[in-house]
Amino acid sequence: WSINSTANYATFQWNFQFMYEFAKAHPEISWVFKPHPNLLFSAVEEKIFPSAETFKEYLQAWDKLPNALFYTGAYYQDIFATSDGMILDSCSFIVEYQFVDKPMIFLTREGEKFNELGREILKASYLVNGQNLDEIATTMQKVFIEGKDDKAAKRKAVFDKYLNYPKANGMLASEFIFKNIIDELKP
Q1: What is the pTM of this model?
Q2: Which residues make Cβ contacts (< 8 Å) with residue 175, sequence separation at least 6?
Q3: In a 10 Å sphere around its CB, with 0-12 CB exposed, 13-18 middle and 19+ buried, how is residue 77 labelled?
Q4: In this structure, how many other beta carbons lie within 10 angstroms of the beta carbon of residue 147?
């Protein structure tokens, strides 16, 4: 959604048609297209689509593919759990997706900013310039279709170092929080 903002993550403006055509040309891959809720507004405002209706037609085209689903729901945990990988250009899911231990292709652009955790996760992810359609296709072919996940060990190491709460705390994060609340309420 951050097509022309200070956030500087969006690559949709350069690859939206390519991604649809790639999905259409690869029926062996099941796709879930989950756009940011603000993408419609920014795509129309930035004249990528001439109107909200044409943007909605693009979404409907995804939904009409026999191997794709256009999803707007809030709950994505099942999608993450049943996926084989994710391709994205937003920092919103990069940490959350690490909990399913599956490959992620992050589409980059100039001006992105990440904290230490984000930078470490991206080192364990496949990074592709969001404007380089040939490289996007090659990386999707290698990682998702051929199943060559060369970053699996690095991804596991990053997860264990930064996100493995049960290992660090001896319990799940929810149990740790509950225990701390109970400890604070004790007289």
Answers
A1: 0.88
A2: 169
A3: exposed
A4: 10
Cα 59 to the center of its chain, rounded Å:
18
**Cα 130 to Cα 182: distance, rounded to the nearest angstrom:** 47
Distances (CA, A) of 43 to 34, 51, 179: 15, 9, 46
Q: pLDDT digit string (tens) for 100-157?
A: 999 999 999 888 889 999 999 999 999 999 999 999 999 999 999 999 999 999 999 9
> What tokens does 61 get?
């085209």
d(CA 128, CA 24): 21
Q: What is the pLDDT of residues 40-73, one digit of tens each?
A: 888 888 888 999 999 999 999 999 999 999 888 8
What's the rounded Cα separation, in Å, for the pair 105 and 61? Answer: 23
Q: Using alpha carbons only, give the angle 29, 30, 36 rounded to the nearest 5 degrees.
A: 120
